[in-house]
Amino acid sequence: MDNDADQAEAAARLENALERIAELARRRPAEVATRGESVDTAQIAGRLDTLIARLRGVLDS
């Protein structure tokens, strides 16, 4: 594969992963509330933002 194809594949895989994460996040708060656990959404969002920034940096290079 050439670099453009690699980047397109990586972007598609990232998009699919983020869609799965978003779907789980929509369902997860209700599940967590029933078990009395807490979710640090700010920490999760920060980690995802960092990961996305790193991936963008790699894809843009």
Structure, described:
With 61 residues, the chain is an all-alpha fold. The protein has one domain (3-60). The chain is 87% helix and 0% strand. The chain contains 2 helices and no strands. The protein has helices at residues 3-35, 41-60. It is elongated, with a radius of gyration of 15 Å.
Notable traits:
2 helices, mainly alpha, 61 residues, elongated
Radius of gyration: 15 Å
Inertia-based shape:
elongated
Number of E-type strands:
0
- How far is the N terminus from the C terminus? 17 Å
Q: Which stretches of 5+ consecutive residues score pLDDT under 50?
A: none
The tally of structural domains comes to 1
Number of helices: 2
**Largest sheet, strands/sense/barrel:** none
* SSE class: mainly alpha
What's the mean pLDDT score?
77
What percent of residues are in strands?
A: under 5%
